[in-house]
Design a protein that fits this description.
1 helix; 123 residues; mainly beta
């Protein structure tokens, strides 16, 4: 186990009822740095009830330099769930954060689980 994964743990972010079906919300996730200090990371959460899945991606879009991904549009391209960012409509796969317009850009993603109606992120 390396230093960057030693301090990862499941964190409760919200309840499932706090999420809007087929839409996104932003949340602050406290991330422990290697220095044992915490800093808040903005996470965009997307709940797709038809797939019984919640996705967590970075709320920051590096191509538009904004923290607005949670306000993007959810859809799919060839059956792959994706996010279209609000300003320039860049497309990111929800499964791995890869930008479809620029292979060199991807968003950070976090593992998510729902347990006892709580949305939990591994951070």
């Amino acid at each position: 186990m390396n230093a960057s994964t030693q301090n990862t743990q499941w964190q409760s972010v919200c309840s499932l009822e706090d999420l809007v079906p087929n839409s996104g919300i932003a949340a602050l996730l406290p991330i422990q740095e290697q220095t044992s200090e915490y800093k808040n990371q903005q996470v965009a959460l997307f709940w797709l009830p038809s797939e019984d899945t919640v996705f967590a991606l970075d709320n920051y879009d590096p191509l538009s330099d904004t923290y607005l991904n949670a306000r993007g549009l959810i859809g799919d391209i060839d059956g792959e769930p994706m996010l279209a960012t609000p300003l320039y409509k860049h497309h990111y796969r929800l499964t791995d954060g890869q930008c479809l317009e620029d292979d060199s850009v991807n968003l950070k993603i976090w593992p998510v689980k729902v347990e006892d109606n709580k949305v939990m992120i591994l951070a």
